[in-house]
Design a protein that fits this description.
Blueprint lengths: L9 E5 L9 H5 L5 E4 L4 E4 L9 H5 L5 E5 L12 H13 L4 E2 L14 E3 L20 E3 L22 E3 L3 E3 L9 H14 L3 E2 L16 E5 L8 H6 L2 E5 L10 E3 L6 H7 L7 E3 L9 H14 L6 E6 L4 H10 L4 E5 L8 E2 H6 L4 H14 L7 E5 L5 H10 L3 E4 L1 H7 L21 H4 L4 H26 L4 H4 L6 E3 L4 H7 L2 E2 L3
Parallel strand pairs: 9-19, 10-11, 11-12, 12-15, 15-16, 16-18, 18-19, 20-21
Antiparallel strand pairs: 1-4, 2-3, 5-17, 6-20, 7-8, 13-14
The structure holds iron/sulfur cluster (3 copies).
The site of one iron/sulfur cluster has 13 residues, from helix 1.
């Protein structure tokens, strides 16, 4: 007989005096935690199935529920924590690779939390953003260093293709299939209202969303799902995904159970077949190969759209980015190792890659040293959690930032980290119609617009405090940053001074 050595992580606590036995929790929990004991007339819970998504807690009309972390404990030691012991039991039982979703919960240092922002005092006075204009618009793409004139000496006012954003914040790649139709609809509508961009991820573009094309970045990943000439022409930019921060060096896998209906049509693969993206692009083994793909995509879209190359933040990222800049890419997207994912092997997510702060500073510096910084723009992503992170990322050298987990939180995600199971109770990471319809796209887009609007106000306040009135003047302005509690090596890589200097 197989012994169950795993204990529930969470415990469902029901206040029996408050509970009216309305059974809403039973209907709301797709994990089957709650059930009515008809004979006894009481509600029961199976805590082993609870992923702590808080759906039942938020919807219980009597306020009778709470989820607590179980106080069951292992005999732990410095090396053998309860989590490690549980994972070994799980693998001994299943023989399989452990899968996880969202960003790594491991407590690696967050450099953003060890960086402080400057403010003007006495000289170089601060600017009041309520009374004076602040420029939050940015353009992403190549910035030529020379002016061109025609034969009669007139200026040629043409630039390579650019993405123009009213705020330096874009919604990062999340594929239709890993997230629901309604989640994509909310992101597309919010991007349009905000004057920014959302990203299809590697799942193709649903026909209903072609109308948002001018605010869409279409992605070309190693699986090439849903890629055809119309798709490439539909977006405002094309992103070649080489790597992803949460799972550098490996491909993707969307289980056949999620390849249903529109998802299968949009990806152009049969229903029920697993969507497996290979680890490498099978036609890219060098920067020259990458250049061929960059120029094939430019050729296919009449050189009208910027091409982004997305890479994961890994050990030698600065040299890789230098190669990418020379491949002809217009924009480099850098994805740090704390970035989210719909599904990734746990060991990869928690152990591979480097923090975005270090990668971003190293890449910006390398491109400056090589005199090619204006050949590409940089979008930084992978754990941008607040307006302060945006300001710090831009001062470290980013032109703009990608957000994804923060956007999903705005849509109602409670970071239960079980997206890979396809039973998202908040209608986000699911293709089950009865769950997907729980997310109202109109409400979702309003919450996304609210979030980015709030961050924009905060960015303006921080910029004003520094006496800076334009994002362009903040980009790479590391004098505005100071480190706290860092080694001199860390400060040197970030290119910032220590607080007090
Ligand atoms: S939703 Fe609340 S009140 Fe209704 S059965 Fe569940 S615990 Fe009881
Ligand atoms: S999985 Fe979510 S909805 Fe189900 S019991 Fe746990 S917190 Fe409630
Ligand atoms: S998207 Fe849904 S399943 Fe994924 S972490 Fe958020 S609430 Fe959980």
């Amino acid at each position: 007989m197989m012994l169950n050595m795993l204990q529930p992580e969470y415990e469902v606590v029901r206040d029996k005096d408050r509970c009216t036995r309305c059974r809403i929790c039973e209907r709301q929990c797709a994990n089957g935690v709650h059930r009515m004991d008809e004979a006894g007339g009481v509600m029961l819970s199976d805590s082993t199935k609870c992923v702590c998504c808080h759906r039942c807690v938020c919807l219980c009309p009597a306020g009778a529920l709470k989820i607590v972390k179980t106080d069951h404990t292992f005999r732990e030691s410095g090396s053998w924590k309860g989590q490690t012991i549980s994972e070994i039991y799980r693998q001994a039982e299943s023989g399989g690779v452990l899968l996880s979703s969202m960003g790594s919960p491991k407590e690696y240092p967050s450099y953003f939390d060890r960086i402080l922002i400057n403010a003007s005092q006495v000289t170089n006075p601060s600017i009041d953003p309520l009374r004076e204009p602040m420029e939050t618009r940015v353009s992403l793409g190549k910035k030529p260093q020379t002016l061109r004139r025609d034969r009669s000496g007139r200026l040629v006012p043409s630039l390579p293709p650019q993405l123009r954003l009213s705020v330096p914040i874009l919604f990062s790649a999340m594929s239709y299939g890993s997230i629901s139709y309604n989640a994509h609809a909310a992101l597309a509508q919010a991007a349009e209202r905000l004057g920014t961009y959302y990203n299809t991820g590697e799942g193709g573009l649903h026909e209903d969303f072609y109308k948002y094309g001018k605010n869409t970045i279409v992605q070309v990943a190693s699986g090439r799902f849903g890629v055809h000439p119309g798709y490439l022409r539909a977006g405002a930019a094309i992103e070649i995904k080489i790597g992803q921060g949460a799972k550098p060096g490996i491909g993707g896998h969307l289980p056949g159970g999620k390849i249903v209906g529109d998802v299968s049509r949009t990806r152009m693969i049969p229903e029920g077949s697993d969507a497996i993206s290979p680890a490498p692009h099978h036609d890219i083994y060098s920067i020259e190969d990458l250049r061929q793909l960059v120029y094939s995509l430019k050729e296919a879209t009449a050189y009208e759209k910027p091409v982004i190359v997305k890479i994961a933040a890994v050990h030698n990222v600065a040299a890789i980015a230098s190669g990418v800049a020379r491949s002809g890419a217009d924009i480099i997207a850098l994805d740090g190792f704390r970035g989210g994912t719909g599904a990734a092997p746990t060991r990869i997510r928690d152990n591979v890659g480097i923090p975005i702060e270090l990668a971003l500073a190293a890449v910006d510096q390398r491109l400056r040293d090589e005199g090619i910084r204006d050949e590409v723009s940089i979008i930084a992503g992978g754990s941008i959690r607040s307006a302060a992170d945006v300001v710090k990322a831009i001062a470290l050298g980013a032109d703009g930032v990608y957000i994804a987990t923060a956007a999903l939180l705005a849509l109602g995600c409670h970071l239960c980290r079980s997206c890979q199971q396809g039973r998202c109770n908040w209608g986000i990471a699911t293709q089950r119609p009865e769950l997907a319809r729980r997310l109202d796209p109109a409400l979702g887009q309003q919450r996304l617009v609210n979030l980015v609007t709030a961050w924009t106000h905060e960015i303006e306040e921080m910029m004003g405090g520094m006496g800076i009135n334009a994002i362009e003047a903040l980009r790479g302005n590391r004098l505005m940053l100071r480190g706290i509690g860092m080694t001199s090596r860390e400060l040197a890589i970030l290119g910032i001074k220590h607080a007090g200097e």
